[in-house]
Amino acid sequence: MQLTAHQIGILLEGTVEGNPEVTVSQLAKIEDAKQGSLSFLANSKYEQFVYGSGASIIIVNDEFVPSQPIRATLIRVKNAYSAFSVLLEKYDELLKSNKTGIEEPSFIHPSAEIGKDVYIAALAYIGPNVKIGDGSKIYPNTYLADNVTVGKNVTLYAGVKVYFNCIIGDNSIIHSGAIIGSDGFGFANGGEGVYRKVSQIGNVIIEENVEIGSNTTIDRATMGSTIIRKGVKLDNLIQIAHNVEIGANTVIAAQTGVSGSTKIGENCVIGGQVGMVGHISIANGSNIGAKSAVNNSIKEENMSWNGFPMMTYRDSLKSQVIIKRLPELEKRIVELENIIKDRLK
Q1: Other CB atoms closer than 10 Å to residue 44's CB: what's the count?
Q2: Residues 68, 74, 76, CA angle at the centre, nearest 5°?
Q3: Residue 219 phi/psi, 5° resolution?
Q4: Mean pLDDT, residues 273-277
Q5: Which of 121, 200, 242, 341 could potentially form a cystine with 183 if both were Cys, beta carbons 3.0 to 4.6 Å apart?
Q6: Any catalytic annotation for residue 242?
Q7: How would you label 188-211 residue by residue, b for 16+ Cβ within 10 Å and e otherwise?
Q8: CA distances from 268 to 250, 271, 328 (A)
Q9: Residue 96 pLDDT class (50, 70, 90 cuts)
C-alpha cells in the first residue's frame, strides 16, 4: 500500500515540509532507508544519517533544525517516536487484517461461543463453554481450557496456553509460549520433609489493553484471582505468582519474578531480573532498577529504587562510588597498619 506525505501528515496531525505528493510503500530505519521508504528521527544520535538518507519521507520533531540540506520530505510532529509507532501499529494491522475464519484441523467444543470475524488457526483447541469476542485471533497450537473468556480484538499467538476459568480483556496481546493460569506454587509441609500440594482453585483476570511477552507465566490464585490491570505491559520470561495484583499501566522487563500475594501499584516501571518477595506492596509510580532485590514494601509513591539489597536510587549511586574505592581504601588501611606496627616496635 502506498501513502503520500500529505495523507501521512493528516494521519499524524503533522506539518509537511517538502513535496506533499511523494509516496512511500515501506517503513525503514533511518540508516537503512531507501527511496520509497518512510523513516523517523527521534534521537539526536542518529541525526548524521538524515542528511544522506535515501528515505522519501522522514518524520521529525517540531523543534528539529537541520544543519545541512535534506533531500527527503519532512513531516514535523510533536513526538516523532510516538508518531512512528502509530504508523507501525497501522502497518501491523494491515498485515494481520486478512486473518479470519476457522482452519482445519482444529477442535472447537459445541458449547463454545465464537464472535464475529474471529480467526482460529489449525491445531487450536477451544474447550467447553469458552467465549471468544469479535475480531479476536487465535493462532496455531493455542489451548483454551474450560470456561475461558477471551474479549474482543484479542490476539493469542502460537502456543499460548490459557487454563480453565481465566479471563482475557479486550484488545490484549499474548505472545507465543505464554502460560496463563497454571497452578500457583503452593505446598504445605506435612511433616518429615514431605510437601503436600495445596489446590489452586482461583483464576487469572487480565484486563483490557494488556500485552504479555513470550514464555511469561502468570499463576492462578489459590482462591480469588491473580489480577493484571488494564494497560499493563509484561516482557518475555517473567514469573507472576499466585494472587499477585499488578496495577494499571505498569511496565515490567524480562526475567523479573514476583512472589505470591504481592501488590504492585499503578504506573510502576520495573527493570529486568528484579526479584520481589511475597506479601508486600509497591506504591504507585515506583521505578525499580534492574537486578534489584525487593525485600520490603515500598510505601512512598513516585520514587526510584535500586540495588541488592534495595535502597533509594541516590543511595545506590553513593554505594557504587564507595565500592569502586574499596581496593584503594584496603591498600591505605594496610599501609596504615604497617606504619602502626613499625612505630610499636
Answers
A1: 9
A2: 110
A3: -80, 145
A4: 97
A5: 200
A6: yes
A7: eeeeeeeeeeeebebbbbbbbbbb
A8: 5, 10, 38
A9: low
Contact 168, 206 (CB under 8 A): yes
Q: Does 83 score more than 70 pLDDT?
A: yes
Among 6, 109, 175, 242, the active-site one is 242
| CB neighbour list of residue 199: distance below 8 Å, 6 or more residues apart | 186, 222
Alpha helices in 128-168 (DSSP H): none
Phi/psi at 209 (5° precision): 60, 35
Lookup: cell for 7: 495523507
User: Grid coordinates in use for 253?
Assistant: 522487563
- Angle at 303 (CA atoms; ends 302, 307), nearest 5 degrees: 145
Q: What gap in Å lies between CA 28 and CA 68, rounded to an integer? A: 22
Count of helix runs (H) and strand runs (E) in the chain = 4, 40
Q: pTM of the predicted model, to two decimals?
A: 0.80
| Cell (9 digits) for 57 | 519521507
Domain annotation for the chain: domains and CATH numbers: 3-96 (3.40.1390.10), 101-312 (2.160.10.10)
State the pLDDT confidence band at 90, using cuts at 50, 70 and 90: confident
Q: What residue type is assigned to position 166 of the chain?
A: C
Q: In 10 A of CB 321, how many CB atoms? A: 8
Mean pLDDT of the chain: 93
Q: In 3D, which of 299, 229, 308 has the Cα closest to residue 276? A: 308
Give the single-character DSSP code of 166: -
Specify the 3-state DSSP secondary structure of 97: coil
Taking only the tens place, the pLDDT of each residue in 193-240 is: 899 999 999 999 999 999 999 999 999 999 999 999 999 999 999 999
Question: Does residue 128 have a cis bond before it (omega within 30 degrees)?
Answer: no
| Average of per-residue pLDDT across 53-68 | 94
Query: pLDDT digit string (tens) for 101-150?
Result: 999 999 999 999 999 999 999 999 999 999 999 999 999 999 999 999 99
Please confirm whether the linkage preceding 110 is cis (ω < 30° from 0).
no
Q: Residue 155 and residue 144: Cα distance in Å, rounded?
A: 13
Rounded Cα distance between 82 and 75, Å, is 13
